[in-house]
Design a protein that fits this description.
Helices cover about 75% and strands about 0% of the residues. With about 240 residues, it is mostly helical. It has three domains: about 5-95; about 120-195; about 195-244.
């Protein structure tokens, strides 16, 4: 770049690409040196070679590895330096910096366009619309958050109601089942009682009939006459006679 048009342009801007590249190379060299020094010291500590003959062998080995890596690294850095100076810090042909005595009309931006009232009005309208949209968006966000909170509360209430219904249904079914058991037990007891009563009455009639003459059959019902019997007892007595 020395003596080139690019160098003159960079000099006019108080910039020096070569100094930048040299600074990067120096940083890389310092990092590499520090890394190998640390590696050497840490290896001696880990291997406990301080003050022994093997310490010299370790130093020679580290130096050999260091030379191999730095040789390749410096070649790559030299290629990078060449590329940067030839391509990254090269300006196109015909490029020239604006002169101080350039007319205002040669500027890339027309100052008259910046002061156009119609354009300013359009920009103000766009700003107002953007502000309005921002306010509407904020309001919609607040409504959305309120709906989300309401939805959470509704879901919790629905869950509580469903849980209560399930508990009610469980207890209701349990109560109905217990009621059926009680009714069945009572019905069985009544049927057994009625059966015993019928058996006792039938047995009583048979005994009375066997001990009394035939003419007095219709005057006996377990020690009571037919005149004292009720209509239901008479119907029951007739049914017993038919079953004999």
């Amino acid at each position: 770049m020395e003596g080139s048009e690019s160098e003159a342009i960079f000099d006019s801007l108080n910039l020096n690409p070569q100094l930048f590249v040299n600074g990067v190379l120096n940083v890389v060299h310092d990092l590499a040196d520090d890394a190998f020094d640390f590696f050497h010291q840490d290896a001696k500590t880990q291997l406990k070679l301080e003050g022994t003959d093997r310490s010299d062998d370790l130093s020679k080995g580290v130096a050999h590895i260091r030379n191999m890596i730095q040789s390749v690294l410096y070649k790559r850095l030299a290629m990078w330096e060449t590329y940067c100076l030839q391509h990254c810090f090269s300006v196109p042909e015909g490029f020239s910096l604006p002169q101080a005595n350039d007319s205002p009309g040669d500027s890339l931006m027309d100052h008259d366009a910046l002061g156009d009232p119609e354009l300013d009005a359009q920009l103000d309208s766009l700003r107002d619309k953007l502000t309005l949209v921002g306010k509407e968006t904020a309001e919609l966000n607040r409504e959305l958050q309120a709906l989300e909170r309401q939805s959470v509360v509704s879901n919790r209430c629905a869950g509580s109601v469903n849980e209560a219904l399930q508990l009610y249904e469980q207890h209701s079914m349990h109560d109905m089942f217990q009621e059926l058991i009680r009714n069945a037990s009572e019905l069985r007891m009544k049927m057994e009682k009625l059966k015993r009563k019928r058996v006792e009455e039938t047995e009583c009639i048979r005994k009375e009939r066997m001990n009394m003459p035939n003419g007095d059959m219709f005057t006996i019902k377990c020690g009571k006459g037919l005149s004292n019997a009720t209509l239901e007892e008479l119907q029951e007595f007739i049914a017993d006679i038919k079953n004999v």
